[in-house]
Design goal:
This protein is α+β, with helices and mostly antiparallel strands. It has twelve helices and 17 strands. Strands 5, 6, 7, 10, 13 and 14 form a six-stranded mixed beta sheet that branches. It has a four-stranded antiparallel beta sheet with strand order 3-4-2-16. A three-stranded antiparallel beta sheet has the order 11-12-15. A hairpin with a 6-residue loop joins strand 11 and strand 12. The two termini are about 25 Å apart.
């Protein structure tokens, strides 16, 4: 009995945390649960891009994945939240932009070339350079001879500002991203930070060796699409064509920068073959109708459980409500992008929670008819129903895994959303059916005097 009440305390603590996650709007300590609606509910833009390569050239999966990463970085620069890119099949990438109001800006951004340059900034302030838009003389890049001493020269056509207080300057491009041979991410010893290592091609090694030998102590910035993303200083001459970019990079930041350096421009040419603009009105209408249908079905099922199974049914109703709160809290905390198909998966998993309760209650009834006490019937009912509950839910999880793989492989985000919410819902439903319902039922039965003499309480 004491253990049962400990379980009750654990359940109520979990329920309180879940309710907070469901309704909070402020979060705590940087953790902010939020409801993320998918493209079909929120409205926005869907773009399909195909790789356009010469006949006979095969596009590799890695090239598509690298292109996807670059496109995500470019889209995030637009301030588009919850942007989603997926590799679809062997030749396409599908992009989804919930809440987008300017499709042209999105399409222009994902089409841009993406030029990576190593730029000489002389003795400029490294911190002031970071994030600035600059003008470069990229025509001097990839020269086969040693690079002369760079000089910043004024330009009559310049429109950008390199650093505060210095306007209309054109900075010298020492070399560009085509001279990179390898780029990697390595951890800094005895530190949580990471560095970016790189290896240059033979031509780049010659340029880099001559330049670094003549410019120790000066700033060699890394510029992507004319924006400074890193501004390290040259510590010493680098004759072997290998270098390390230091900075207080997290693993994610270092990986992102490595991708940008490796493929400042897209590794394969992409062409926008289809765009589809989805209005938010349709999404809101679909969401409202789906929720109304879910509430109606939920109420009918709860009434059935209460009428047919009486006290155990009422306890199961409480457990199902607990399941719904916990599931929604997890969806907000991860967060999971909810689409109509994802909501359908969640609704279907609710049925799994009821199935487990029904199997257990029917077994419990059989034990009561056989003359068992209520405590024995509850224990044996759950124990003997468990193999059926386990097998049915394992089958549901296997199906979800197959659907998720299918969605990931062929770019069917609708299928992925359904599979993910169904799998999570099944896992949570098993927990609530076995742990929550069983605990609640044991406590309620302990409050009833001589329950064996009142079979009507169990629908008998």
């Amino acid at each position: 009995m004491s253990r049962r009440y400990i379980y009750i305390i654990v359940i109520f603590v979990l329920l309180a945390v879940s309710l907070w996650a469901c309704f909070t709007t402020t979060g705590i300590g940087g953790f902010q649960p939020k409801t993320v609606l998918g493209l079909d509910l929120r409205g926005g833009l869907q773009v399909i891009l195909d790789a356009k390569v010469a006949q006979g050239i095969t596009v590799t999966r890695q090239e598509l994945e690298d292109a996807k990463s670059i496109l995500e970085n470019r889209a995030n620069a637009l301030g588009v939240s919850e942007v989603n890119f997926q590799v679809a099949g062997d030749n396409s990438i599908v992009g989804e932009f919930p809440g987008v109001t300017d499709p042209k800006a999105v399409i222009d951004t994902i089409r841009q070339v993406g030029l990576l340059e190593f730029v000489d900034f002389g003795s400029e302030d490294q911190n002031a350079l970071m994030g600035k838009t600059v003008i470069t003389d990229e025509g001097a890049a990839n020269a086969a001879q040693p690079t002369p001493e760079p000089q910043a020269t004024p330009s009559a056509d310049a429109t950008a500002t390199a650093v505060p207080g210095i306007t209309e300057k054109v900075w010298h491009t020492v070399m560009n991203g085509r001279d990179l041979k390898e780029v990697g991410v390595v951890p800094v010893p005895n530190s949580p930070n990471y560095e970016i290592s790189f290896v240059l091609s033979d031509a780049g090694k010659k340029i880099f060796s001559d330049y670094t030998a003549a410019n120790v102590g000066k700033v060699l910035g890394i510029v992507l699409d004319k924006k400074v993303i890193s501004a390290p200083s040259i510590q010493n001459a680098i004759p072997d064509g290998q270098g390390v970019i230091t900075g207080k990079f997290t693993r994610e930041e270092a990986n992102n920068l490595a991708v940008q350096m490796r493929y400042g421009s897209l590794p394969i040419p992409l062409e926008v073959v289809q765009t589809r603009l989805i209005g938010p009105t349709l999404g809101v209408d679909s969401l409202n109708k789906s929720l109304i249908a879910y509430v109606i079905g939920f109420v009918i099922v709860m009434l059935f459980m209460a009428i047919y199974y009486r006290v155990p049914g009422l306890v199961a109703d409480l457990a199902i409500l607990t399941y719904a709160v916990i599931a929604f809290a997890i969806f907000r905390s991860i967060p999971i992008t909810l689409s109509l198909s994802g909501i359908a998966g969640f609704m279907l998993s609710t049925g799994s929670a009821l199935d487990a309760n029904i199997l257990s209650f029917e077994r419990m009834k059989e034990e009561l008819r056989a003359g068992r006490t209520v405590a024995q019937a509850i224990e044996l009912g759950w124990k003997r129903a468990w193999p059926s509950i386990r097998d049915s839910n394992i089958a549901a999880l296997i199906t979800s895994a197959i659907l998720f793989w299918f969605g990931s492989t062929f770019g069917a985000s609708i299928v992925k959303g359904f599979a993910l919410t169904l799998a999570l819902g099944v896992i949570i439903s098993v927990f609530t059916a076995i742990f929550v319902t069983r605990t609640f039922l044991g406590v309620v039965m302990s409050w009833i005097k001589d329950p064996e003499k009142r079979p009507s309480l169990f629908g008998l």
